[in-house]
Every structure is written in structure tokens, then in C-alpha cells.
Amino acid sequence: MTTESDPALMAKTASGDLVAFEQLVLRHQEKAWAFAWRFLQDAAEAEDVVQEAFLRVFRAASQYEPTATFRTYLFTVILRRCLDLRSKKRPEYASDLPPLTDHSASPEKLLLEQERMAAVSRALMKLAPSQRAVLLLRHYEEMSYREIAEVLHISEKAVDSLLQRARQGLRDLLTHEDPTIGRRI
Amino acid sequence: MSVIHCGKASAWLGRYLDGELPWGRRQALEEHLRECETCSRALAELGEMNELLGGVAVPPVPASLSANIVRRARTEAKPATAWRTLFSGWTVWPPARRFATAGAILAALYLGIVVGGALASTRTGAEINWLQFATGGTIVKAYMGVSR
Question: Mutating which of B48, B65, B81, B86 best tests the A interface, going by the most A Cβ atoms within 10 A?
Fold first, then answer.
């Protein structure tokens, strides 16, 4: 894979270089997919969102200004599409969670972990979309408060309070849904 | 004696865990945590919740995802090439060039409307004449008459 920077690849994309665009897609698709899947918990919708987001980036390549990192820019586009989709539809909960791959664990432990994971996923989906987004960006994308603020178009202070509410909300939901998890945290 | 109280400390725990708390506040919080069992427990719980979140796995990226994106981009890029080449870099054109282009487009539109309007007015008379060819008075018959 190329070592060219994201802004350099975007500049080439703007001039119609599809190879450069493909490099961008290959570089960021995994993170983009993981975020969309965790937010929507629906493989078909997540795939659609990621495709549309990258195409939007492609169409707007000539207007791209590298004031923020490409990752922040991409996640802003993805999140907007996720929120658009969710605003049109009632939330659904994942029924096809990927299996755990810890082969050393006993079947009982695996089952328990699977149930716990499903409970966390359900709880995430019950959070308000902005709270879910802030948790995903912080915990999985490991974005700084500043980066999250850029993606969500809010202040860093607002990110802080949103994260606090999201964590409290998640904790309450987990305690309510599954007392064993509630006891654990 | 700690310089901050539990209310402030609990509000800072998330930032502390995320490595986002400024140095001065970090020192104050760590001092508070050494003395306060409640806040220390809250910090541990927060850490455990982070671990729980870490357990949520994601299915692998669909094998055809990148290929589909690039295929669609290629399809979109083809018809737009000529147009894009003509107006590429509109946003970075010098103002004089932008005004000249916009003026030319407006002039062309104006001419189109004026000339088109003039032609339409002359054609109206002709159309009335065409209708006279019609026997029976329907539009279809008029058309048939003109066609003949």
C-alpha cells in the first residue's frame, strides 16, 4: 500500500485519479465499517452507509481542505449518514452478533461472554444517537476530545458532558437489563 | 486534605481515564483519589465499563466493499469528466475569470430567451394557419393536415 498522506491522495482524487481514491478506501474502510456497524448494528445498512460516505468524499474531493484530519472528515460524513438513517427508522437490535473467537475458554464462559456482549450492544443501541456516537468515537476510534468535537460540531466541554451522560446512561441500562453486568460495574 | 470535593472529582473521572485531564487537575484528582474510597471505586467501575465496551466485536469488512465503492466512483466519474474539466477549479479561479464566465452564461441565457421568445411569437401565427388545414377542428386532424 502507498505511503502517501491522506491529503495528497485526496488532491489526486480531486484530479480524477481513481487509484488514489482506492488507496484511501483501502486505508480507511475497516475503521469506517466498524464504526457504521457498531452504530447501526445492521450489516446491510452499515455497508450502504460506508459506500455512500466514501462516494460523497469522492464527489466533494475538489472542495476538500485539509484543515482537519481526513479521518475526522470521513467520520463526520459517516456519522451524518448514520444519523440520517436512524432518524428515518426505529432502532433495531443486532441479532447476528459475530461469534467470539477465544478458543481457550469453556463453552459456558463463551456463552456468558456472548450474552454479555449482546447486552452491551443492546444497551448501546438504546442510548440517544449522540451519546452512542460519542462513546463509539472515544472507545473504539480512540479519538481525542478535540477530534470528537470536530466530528460532532460541538465544543470540547460539550463532548466531556456528553461522554459523562453516555457512560452513566450505559451503566444504568446495563444494570437494569442484566444485574450480573450491573454488579460487575 | 484534598483540594477538591467528590462532586468535582467524579466529573473529572472520565477525562482522567481518557488522558484528557490537564496536568494541574490531574494532580488534584490523584490526591483526592488517594483519600476517597467512593471516587476510587467509581474510577474502577468506569474502567470496567470500558473493558465491557471493548468486548463488542465487529463482523469482518465485506469482501466486496472497496471494489463496489471504486466501481461506483468510476461509473460516476465517466459522464462528469467533460463538465468537470470545463469548470475544474471554479472555486480557485480569479474573480475576474469567474465574473466573465458567469456573465457569458447569463448573456447566453438572455439571448436564448429573447431569440426564443421572438421565434415563438412568429410561430404562433403559423400554428394558427396550420390549424386551418384541419377539417373537423381537432388538434390531431390539424397535425395530420400539417403533416400532409
Answer: B65
